[in-house]
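Hi, here's the filled form for the chain we discussed.

Project: internal
Contact: R.S.
Residues: 636
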Amino acid sequence: MVDILRTAVSGLMASRTAMATTSHNVANVNTPYYSRQRVELGTPMPEQRSYGYLGRGVEIQGITRAYDEFLMKQLRGHGSGVGQYDTLNNLTGQMSALLGDTEVGLTPNLEKFFGALQDLANSPASIPARQVFLDEARTLTTRVQDIDGALGGLRKSVDTGIRNAVATINDLTAGVAKLNQDIAATQSPANAPNDLLDNRDRLLMDLSKLVGIQVVTQDDGGVNVFMGNGQPLVVGNNAYQLEAAPSGFDPQEITVRLPGQAAGSDLERYIAGGELGGYFEFRRTILNPAQDGLGLLAMGLTETFNDQHAKGMNLDGETGVALFAARAPKVWTHGANQGDAAFSASLVDSTALARSDYEIRYDGANYSAVRLSDQKVLLASGDLAALNVELEKDGLALTPSSGAPQAGDRFLLQPTRQGGAGFELLVGDPRKVAAAAPITTSAATGNLGSGGISPGAVADSDNANLWNTVTIEFTAVDQFTVTDTVTGDSFTQAYDSVNGTTVSYNGWEVTLSGNPQAGDTFEVKDNIGGIGDNRNALELVKLELKPQLLGGNDYRGVYAQMIAEVGAQGRRVESTLRSQEALFEQSTMARESISGVNLDEEAANLVRFQQAYEASAQMIQTANSLFKTVLDAVRS
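And the returned structure, exactly as it came back:
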């Protein structure tokens, strides 16, 4: 009877534990990353009797969880991809909407600006036409500033996202380290703290959505967590906190480093995957090039328009002044520099500008420079003069401002990043628009030959003698003399009747052609009073379609290229996001097929365990009845 009771009680306890475990599974059916648990049953060592071995019922050998480490690793990897590309897709979508919107984008303003310029060329003496041109120019500069401000807003959103992601990462790694400690304290070779392990998996899954990680399981049940190139986040019971801090170069740009590390010891280049990787990739590959492109457009339009406008004459008989202004290139000094050197940069040729930053290093004797957009080494080693030779090929020049560099010092040259923010119109008086050419040419009415002279063009508006009257007299059919009637200076030049001859003098150029005769004269003089002259306005109009920026683009082409690149990036990101989401869904289903709770299966198990429980209870009742029968027999 004792044997019967003992066996029945073991069955009762086993069934009760199995039902409790099943109930636990059902209760956690909606708990993220919960792994289904199962009671492992076995038979204890039987008792040897004279007639053989007598079984001792059932024993609980453990409670295990249905778990596949490979599937969890795969799921974390795909979760990291979803986090990264979901962040990229959201930010890229905002940028595409900003740049491509017909209401707030730049294309309509460029069209209106050049349309007003053409109207001015058609009516150069019209004050209303001049005012409309200035109004459209002001609207254009305001729109560029607005777009740059919106891009700056996206930059701030990225910085905020980085800060929030780092704060959450620190919370999660601290939680993983605490669970490592709890698991090590409670785990035994025979039994594992299943719920603690699931909680840790859930934290690791959340962590992987924020940053790409590698997880290494230790013998004591703990895990070590690394990111990027092996930077530890969790080792045993220790969590290594991250810090969102200003960049070593730009204090307004947020990056990631370990607390206590010097500026410049950032981990950004090692971070990939997850939301954090998405923020850094967006800023590096989409936001920076777009803002650089907008700045390049503003700086290119400023330089080319100002150069041509200076070659014209306004209604007051003055040469043109600068129409636009844009901020100069910026040189950042690294926060970890040992020297106190500071540099300024200037624009040499906007048509040679690239949409790129440049990192400049000093080794104690020489400089080196790398163009960051394509990692091209512009200068391996050389002095400042050699550095400027290479930078001038990209339209830039570097000038020392103060101090002296020390070995290891670094500098970041940003040619166009701030160009859009500082784009502004400098002319407010419509009379100051230089639509006319400052010189006019004419042939003497008594000329005998068929020679002609071009209207002339200004090459150097700063020439002090630009306004002087100059005569050109042919002393022979193949020779002429040029005389400045103000200074009295003169020179003789040969004439080519077949190809014509260009004369460059006093900051202007004219071309003589045809077959002049000896004694024929021509005159170049100021155009004061020529309010109906539109020659410089026409030259400004020509700039609209002139392929002079960023490898042969006109102004619209630069902006169109920005939109096209952002659109292409957006399509790539969206496509990759869909792929990552599909892979994540597949991995989730694969994990659920092994670790997930199936309510139908659990319901069937509950019925089965309940029946076993009731049968064991019936056995106890039978044993009790037999025991009572024996007691009654003894009493009687």
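Let me know if anything looks off before we file it.
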